[in-house]
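Lab meeting tomorrow. Please check the following:
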Amino acid sequence: MGSPKASAATLPLILDIDDFKGDFSFDALFGNLVNELLPSFQEDDADGADGGGQDALPNGTMRGLQGTATPMFPAVEDLLALFKDSCKELVDLRQQIDGRLQNLKKEVEVQDAKHRKTLAELEKGVDGLHQSFQRLDSRISSVGQTAAKIGDHLQSADSQRKTASQTIELIKYLMEFNSSPGDLMELSPLFSDDSRVAEAASIAQKLRSFAEEDVGTHGINMPSAVGAANASRGLEVAVGNLQDYCNELENRLLSRFDAASQRRELSTMAECAKILSQFNRGTSAMQHYVASRPMFIDVEVMNTDINLVLGDQGLQAGPSNIARGISTLYKEITDTVRKEAATIMAVFPSPNDVMSILVQRVLEQRVSTILDRLLEKPSLVNLPPVNQGGLLLYLRIFAVAYEKTEDLAKELQSVGCGDLDAEGLTESLFLPHKDEYPEYEQASLQQLYQSKTEELRAEAQQQSESTGTISRSKAAISPSAGQQISVTIVTEFVRWNEEAISRCTLFSSQPAALAGNVRSVFACLLGQVSQYLTEGLERARESLNEAAALRDRFVIGASVSRRVAAAAASAAEAAAAAGESSFRSFMIAVQRCASSVAILQQYFSNTISRLLPPDAHAASLEEMGTAVSSVEGAAQKGLQQCIETVMAEVERLLSAEQKTTDYRTPDDGNAPDHRPTNACIRVVAYLSRVLESAFSALEGLNKQSFLTDLGNRLHKGLINHWQKFTFSASGGLRLKRDITEYGEFVRSFNAPSIDENFELLGIVANVFIVAPESLASLFEGTPSIRKDALRFIQLRDDFKIAKISSMLNSFKMDS
């Protein structure tokens, strides 16, 4: 193996600029420098290891066999030399690169100066070129404007040339029409050529317009009639001939239009319609087409319409059947108009105008014809019989026809009818009926009410005849059995009115008219309900009056035979039964009145009040209050009669059942009887039985007022009754028991004042129980009973014996 120096001298150390180009890596460069030295070092190291005679020393050198030390990294000297040479070469390369960069910088500065100079020269050239383009654009614009002016002049000249040419042609044609009156044989072929009808029509209209304008102008400006005639004589001939020609041409086109229409040649129809539009805007063609539709000229169509709606029964078919017929007819009309609309859109240049004429003709002819048959206005003097429908049938058919026709108008409006107000035209068809509608509605309600009262009267008569076999004596003691008030009938009145209100809403488009009609119709209901309930209460009162008459008839004197007295008592019992029955009947009537008034008020709240403005609402509410007040007045009269009936029976029972020994029992040593007297038991039983209907029938203030009045009358009647008797001490106890029984019963009245009266009456009864010397002490706690107590004291059986009179006189003086 050679020495390290020898090996280092053989290593090439060459650095080139290319080594630093591209993706430069220092590690790669370093590896390339040292890779040639390291393999020799590795080989030496390997040889030393194979010898095995060297040991590594702590300082990194190797010890040989003889004990000499050798370097551990022998190529280090070579690497140091290599690195030094590389550094020198790197410095040289850097200097070379710096020189080159300086040269390149100088070259770049020179080239940049040249480039800047070139750009400045180019900018000057571009500016000049831009100015040249602006001058060119300005000249082009000027030339374009000049060309446009020349074009305008040429176009104007061409237009004037054409106008002059057309004017010459028109003058020539005008001279042809000016030849002689009525002579159309010498006209140009244009006016007789069927293939040039459109052109002939246009020229004829222009000539006609010119001639008529000229005649009118000369007629105004000429100072004399003679001058005017001389100036326009020839044109008047032309005007006449042109009018004749236009009429003849229009008729010819209409004939061709009809022929094409029968063959359904829409293109020919459209061509004729377009030409005819030059004659009076095509009005004649539109009207001719509409008038030629089968539904307007075929009598069979009219008959079919009437038969479809009315059938074989006519108006008696009923509103529901008529409604179905009208719906079917109007659907057929709508389908027909829709089909015609398709044809009109394809044929006429102004389809909206044609549709306007068509729909107007449908409403004014076809619909109006069926309405005239349906709405035969009845007389308000001689009303139609109710069994044939009465006025109600007319009103129901009126409502059905109006509603269905309104729907038809909306359908036709949706199909298309141009500027025509189909709904407004439909409204005008019903104006004669709507103007008098309120009178007919009120008359119908009155007719229904009269019919119902006659029906009820007939039923009552029939019931009376069916009971005609009753014995005369039994009938004599029976109160008149008029028909009771029925809530069902009042509900029927309300149903009539509700139906009438629905028609008011349908027919009254304006709020003011609706409010007026609703008020008048509701006033009819108020009158009907008030009259019906008042008459029903009056009938019930008649029963009370008849029962009272029966009581008076059987009143007898004291000195009669026993047989007569027994018969009279039996008759009085029957009269009492009649009075009780009449009482119950009247209470039922009052209860049904209350229910009927509640129905009326509920109807007003739910239906009427929603349709009225505030002022009309207040007025109707006042009218309803007046009507209800009249019913309440009749009820109050009857309730007073009921009190009279009850008190009459109470007095009869007391007179018949109360014995003199009830309150003056003999002193036989037996224990006193603490039970109520028989008269008290009978009276309380009667009151409990008869007032049961009053408790269920009356409510609120009516019930409170009635029971309070009855309680006061009962209190007063009992006091007057007891004034007829003399009381012992034990009798006073029994009287106190009767008063307690009466007091217990009147507690059901829920009237505190009545309870207080009977409580005080119980205290007053103590005047029969206490000793004479203790009477004065009774008044100390309750001075309010003094008056009644003084009256009762005189009824004591010991009043004279115990000298109570003198005691009372001294008591009065002390007080």
User: Anything to note?
Assistant: Confidence is low (pLDDT under 50) at residues 1-13, 48-68, 220-232, 469-481. The longest helix spans residues 76-177.
